[in-house]
């Protein structure tokens, strides 16, 4: 059950179940023999057992975690004033605006989920380490800049099938063409010497800003565009986990060329006020996107506690989602037939992944606002979703087979497997 609870205030999600929906049937190949497998994302990645600070005893409720937390006082540095800067003032003002909503509505959703057997904690993961696959996709995208691109005038050459008629993937050019997997089954394949699992009915382009042209030549207009930009911040610079992007560069994204009329545009935003201000005042107006709502992703442990104290001055247990409609064009689209208004300040409550920048899928919670057959795109993606098109320089990062556990099913011959691969 991927949506554990749905209420007037939002949703409680089981992120692992959301991921697993695409891998009930997965084909793997050894020589001329195909095996039908069932893949599941490793539960260890979502075993967040305790809050990162302000730890409470097992079973403590969300509201207790807030009331009893003891926050360390900031030490005053000699020779420096303790006055708040404008960013801190803005951050505090926003927090006060949403605090009561987060506290009360998270409590309601968590209690409802507990009655269904969710948020009961988990086993100690000490003997089951996190997957340690080293991702080099961004470096490969950098190297691909020197490769010749596809002719801009050749519209027929902008897409390719994941698996050819012989069941091979050696023909693929992942950097200059959109790769399509049109089968109703997931497939485990070898790409660039690594093993990845690709969900059904998906398409992806592995590239950075300099090679987005294949996505534009692909010719699709999308009813929803979700993006999780690599925002600049100090912790990312220190850790060097990924290359961040200056906010001003986001204006280069060709949203008007990718969006259908009335397209729903959804952007994940960190808690830095200047990033939220930039999206509201500069980025969306630049694209012709009108803001319709702001949602909050609330991160809780497997016992339903906030992962950080709600009033922590350093890290908050929530992030913001800014939702808007592309409204520059006067054309009509099928998405306009879905007149459900997007409510403001809805919560998406879930246990976060222990893997950096691994956001929960929004596919289920967005359906009422876009329809079940909408054309969906994710930008800056680090994983794939069934039925979606995805772009990014690490678009296959969390598709590596090391993040999945496998259950064997039945054996298939090469001829019988052909009906399960590309249609």
Key descriptive features of the protein:
25% strand, twelve-stranded mixed sheet, 17 strands, 22% helix, alpha/beta, globular, 423 residues, five-stranded mixed sheet
How far apart, in Å, are the first and last alpha carbons?
29 Å
* Unreliable runs: 54-61, 66-74, 332-337, 411-419
- Helix/strand-derived category reads alpha/beta
Read across the widest sheet, the strand sequence of neighbours is 1-2-14-12-13-11-10-15-16-9-6-5
> Total number of β-strand segments?
17
> What is the chain-wise order of helices and strands?
EEHEEHHHEEEEEHEHHEHEEEHEEEH
Q: What share of the residues lie within helices?
A: 10-25%
pLDDT averaged residue by residue: 84
Could you characterize the architecture of this molecule?
The chain is built from ten helices and 17 strands. The chain is an alpha/beta fold and 423 residues long. The strands form two sheets. The chain has a twelve-stranded mixed beta sheet with strand order 1-2-14-12-13-11-10-15-16-9-6-5, sandwiched between helices. Strand 3 and strand 4 form a beta hairpin. It is globular, with a radius of gyration of 22 Å.
